[in-house]
DNA sequence: TCCTACGATGGACAGAGTCCAGGTCAAGAA
DNA sequence: TTCTTGACCTGGACTCTGTCCATCGTAGGA
């Protein structure tokens, strides 16, 4: 994730200890964290980091396209650092675990012109739902 | 929507004036309302109806499969009475308007077995995003 | 090393939704 | 029709998620 910090620095970002810690948390193998979870993990390394800073930093990373926002339930948004590799999500309805998946074909191509109602369609999000092996 | 009330009665639902009003509101042509909007419209006809009742009634209709819950932004969930006709959603990123759309093919079929990770996949939600003609 | 504008803080606030104790009423029974 | 009762409704407090803002701190250039 030092890559990420380098890219952000290249975009004029001031690199602070708070931003570094948030970036490191997202770089772990526990992806799809909520903002609250990111804050909790960041606070393990930098106890005085504030919620507002975590929200700001995540929001900035999202608007720079470095992190994806995912909301698979009606609850808290989750943050997915895998933003540079197009993918969709598979969610377990029982335990809520989220996996990145790669459907075949281009989902955008499945929407015929007469179903676009004059929209300029630019993006598709697909969420598959089911029950994972552990919950079944 | 008297159909809906009849189906609910058949499932042992007690038909109260509150539930009737909520069902009538969802039957209007202004679909994809938030719970707050449903409450506001219901209160026009039944001023003393409470927020809790609207939330409860919507939740019950969802769990009975009579209404679909849609969350296209990170904000309030929206309620779609068109639950008996499979469809997906097209959302304008500018004004937030939501249209029901019908992609070709079966979106479930696009997820290969090796991308299912042992899940029993039963459902797909597809959200197309773009800019509508009025906002372009 | 010093400056200063950008960033962090924390506490108040807002929006969406849930919970609960107590009062009300739909619908079946008599 | 009236009675009975358990399902339903109410209003208000509460939780969770996220935003805002005034003030303070500091990264990084001069």
Automatic annotation (TrEMBL), chains A, B:
Keyword Transcription regulation (UniProt): yes
Keyword annotations for this protein, in alphabetical order, are: DNA-binding, Metal-binding, Repressor, Transcription, Transcription regulation, Zinc
Q: How is the cofactor bound?
A: Binds 1 zinc ion per subunit.
> Which terms under GO biological process does the entry name?
negative regulation of DNA-templated transcription; regulation of secondary metabolite biosynthetic process
Which GO MF terms are attached to this record? DNA-binding transcription factor activity; transcription cis-regulatory region binding; zinc ion binding
Q: Which family does it belong to?
A: Belongs to the Fur family.
| UniProt protein name | Fur family transcriptional regulator
The cofactor named in the record is:
Zn(2+)
| Positions annotated to bind Zn(2+) | 92, 95, 132, 135
Pfam families the UniProt entry points to: FUR (PF01475)
Q: Which organism is it from?
A: Streptomyces silvensis
């Amino acid at each position: 994730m030092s890559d990420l910090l380098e890219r952000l620095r290249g975009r004029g970002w001031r690199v602070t200890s708070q931003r570094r810690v948030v970036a490191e948390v997202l770089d772990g193998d526990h992806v799809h964290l909520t903002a609250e979870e990111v804050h909790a993990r960041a606070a393990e390394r930098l106890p005085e980091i504030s919620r507002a800073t975590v929200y700001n930093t995540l929001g900035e990373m999202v608007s720079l396209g470095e992190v994806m926002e995912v909301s698979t339930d009606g609850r808290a948004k989750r943050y997915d650092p895998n933003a540079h590799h197009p993918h969709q999500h598979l969610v377990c309805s029982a335990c809520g675990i989220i996996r990145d998946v790669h459907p075949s074909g281009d989902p955008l191509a499945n929407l015929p012109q007469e179903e676009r109602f004059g929209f300029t369609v630019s993006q598709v999000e697909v969420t598959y739902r089911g029950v994972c092996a552990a919950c079944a």
